[in-house]
Amino acid sequence: MNTPLTHSPLNCFPVKDDCLFVGGISLTELATRVGSTPFYAYDRRLISERIQQLRTHLPPGIHLHYALKANPMPALVGYLAPLVDGLDVASLGELRLALDSGMPPETISFAGPGKSDNELAASLAAGIIINMESEGEMERIARLAEKQGHRPKVAVRVNPNFELKTSGMKMAGGPKPFGIDAERVPPMLTQIGALDFDFYGFHIFSGSQNLRAEAIIEAQERTFKLALELARSAPGPVRLLNIGGGFGIPYFPGDKPLDLRPIANNLATSLPEVNKQLPEAEVIIELGRYLVGEAGIYVCEVIDRKISRGHVFLITNGGLHHHLAASGNFGQVIRKNYPVVVGNRIQGSARETVSVVGPLCTPLDTLADRMELACADVGDLVVVFQSGAYGRSASPLGFLSHPAPAEVLV
Ligand SMILES: *Cc1c(COP(=O)(O)O)cnc(C)c1O
């Protein structure tokens, strides 16, 4: 097999007659149904199973939120909303999507540095919780709230004095544009009290894409400790404690899936003390890619098969303009191949080492670099797994003016 992942995506998506099945439909049939390639397909069953797995392992006191930035497809958000306890948004567009899903406003929170006045005004009008990221933002909220006649529902996003170790993306510790430095939070809490805001609690997000349970446990422990300390200066009871997420998914050969059990066990040990000290606080874990990343594939079609000085290139109609992350240009330091197969001939009758490239006139447009795949020809369907998060919406769709890929939920 060309994907030496210990946890192969082929365990998630069944294969019949050498063809991949998505949501009970063969890939070739699905491609006909979608009507054009390339496309993204997301499998409802896999999303539900992932949430069920979290509910089974995590203590019942943990509230699960979905961070829309991982995948904002409206049908997917609508499907997920009733399965989770809240939604986290980071723009006006995401806020509208979250409200469209029918989620109650007090379960929606808005984080992000650089919220515009329009975004703050919309948040106040919608009655969602604003995770404040600076003193300046707090002052703008106060002005807008007075003008609009609303009492702002707020939480404080804290930039902790630690980071989530060995994370794909570090978003806390040291100087950061996200949140308010922990040491500045107590005086800010006094101001929040004086402004008579409706104070909900804290948001402490320390990193993303982590596959090491011990690192996540350590960050959660430090988060609880920090939150309990800060709570002493709070202008009212802490009703919300968002401890971030950071749960990663395996993308590359050698990546091992995150083991939830030690995280769940540790939370079961720590939660009673947190509940005792902050009896009104809902403890929230916010996840993006962990909920949807493995449930999605990107499918493109072979347009040409070309041999250059002995090396086979499969040239497809899909590429980095649709799937920046799989091309290795979305924050990766060293380019590695996402798991890729020829979806309509998984094993094939013969195999060869090829590079899968897109139609763009740049060497960056590579979906698979020297990978062993079934021998493929024009019209065959190349599948990139682990594409349910940070796919379409995280790609430069306008680059080279090709059509955007379709998206389906099956
Ligand atoms: C991006 C982000 C998330 C989601 O990250 P994943 O790695 O997709 O789980 C959650 N919370 C915040 C504050 C974020 O910025």
UniProtKB/TrEMBL annotation:
One Gene Ontology MF term: diaminopimelate decarboxylase activity
Cofactor: pyridoxal 5'-phosphate
Residues annotated as the enzyme's active site: C361
Alphabetized PROSITE patterns for the sequence: ODR_DC_2_2
Domain Orn/DAP/Arg decarboxylase 2 C-terminal: 39-388
UniProt-listed Gene3D superfamilies: Alanine racemase, Lyase, Ornithine Decarboxylase, Chain A, domain 1
Domain Orn/DAP/Arg decarboxylase 2 N-terminal: 46-292
Protein family per UniProt: Belongs to the Orn/Lys/Arg decarboxylase class-II family.
NCBIfam families recorded: dCO2ase_PEP1 (TIGR03099)
Protein name: Pyridoxal-dependent decarboxylase, exosortase system type 1 associated
Source species: Nitrosococcus halophilus (strain Nc4)
